[in-house]
Amino acid sequence: MIVGVDFGTTNSLVAYVGPKCKLEIIPNERGSRLTPSVVYFKNEKQVLVGELARSQMLARPEQTILKVKRKMGTGHRYKVFGRDYTPSEIGGLILRKLKNYASDFLGKEVKQAVITVPAYFDDNQRQGVLHAARLAGIEVVKLLNEPTAAALAYGVHTKNEKTVLVLDFGGGTFDITLMKHSEGLFEVITTGGSTELGGSDFDEVLARWVVETVRETNGVDLATDPIALQQVYNHVERAKIDLSSVEETNIVIPYIAMSPNGPIHINLNLSRSQFEHLTKELLKRTEELILTTLEESQTGAEDVDVVVLAGGTSRMPAFRSIVCSLLPKAEIKSEINPDEVVALGAAIQAAVLEGKIRNIELKDVLPHSLGVLDDDGEFVPIIERDSTYPTSAAKIFTNAYDDQDYVEIRILQKRRGTLVDLGNFRFTSKKKWKKNEANIAVTFQINQNGVLEVSAEDLDTNEVAEVTITGGVFGGGNQNDGEMLERRGTDLEVI
Ligand code: AMP
Quick one: which of 96, 246, 369, 443 could link to 385 by a disulfide (CB 3.0–4.6 Å)? Predict the structure, then answer.
């Protein structure tokens, strides 16, 4: 059984195609379809993941890890109980939790998954997710781009050539992906949006409004009381969610604090129009981000055929009005629960790979180029940006000096003018060469996950590389995750 996993910044989900080709979200042991992507270290041996972890985060923030997805593939380290953990290790604990409850639900161990990642995730970030899965004992059959998954859930791939705009407005991010689709090929034209704009910014504005109102009426500053403040955040988020379906709501929090005159109770009325007025700057920013993404790709609003909505914040009526007014000609797809659409798309891809549903051939496009540094320190691309993958390309390298028995190559990734060092690739030979004698064919292969694999062959001897990659991401932190897990990761019990 291959399941589909949406490994999200705020929440994660698992879905599968069940009997009679029915698409289903797998509930966790509490019956919830969403599992918060939160890890809480109860002690040195046990971690809680999900709702239980989220409810601890206020009491013990130093033992709680949130939003690990944002750190995947970076050198970031989390220190808990005096030990360092990589983002992949923490991500691995979340994936282990998902694997455990999905296995319990299905009555057999889940070993394989399609896992979704943002289309803009680069090689490091993809490698980070793959490592996390490996640590969780999950074989990733495919890393699927989230917007492609959302489009797949809506069956966009069954249509003729289309320009598809996927707007994924979640808790902390607003991901905009403009894609062209024809004959099973989803080509990402451009990605935009913001990693600093999401539903929690709307909560923040409302929380500030509540705190200010209490300060004005009661002279008490709730901002100085973390427990009271957390209660305010919980209630304003609920009010915001209510206002997506009703025109008016109340924020009622009894006994929120004490004042010299006795206990303070909050009882505020909030209308949808008042909420939209309070958050008008955020809504304006949302609109600007969509327009900028279209402009950057020189796509007119009238060229967009289909808009796919994903992420909880996309339920906000004000957001939907913005989308309708900016893109009046587009068909807006919003019937599927926006929290679940990415996981469901991943489950469809999983079922395709299992042969359960008819073959849909999907291809993705690489969002960055991969190459090497030449002798002058210039970046030389080997696989160009926008190449469809899986793909491979080779280049011949030689040695620079007499008596050299190795060829060393620096592998880099280039995206929007920025170079990232992925590592040094070393081919070691059994013999010593004269200057420029070696003929080493280095093959760069982008596998079905959008991840680089490198191999090398001495064309004179047919000797296949004895490869060591040092430094950068391949040779650095992520590569060590496996060892770290052996050392301590598996001794953690995930609850
Ligand atoms: P996601 O990251 O996709 O799980 O989205 C979570 C965000 O969606 C949170 O900020 C939620 O408060 C928000 N959200 C969920 N449902 C609604 C709704 N009905 N209206 C507005 N925001 C919502």
Answer: 369
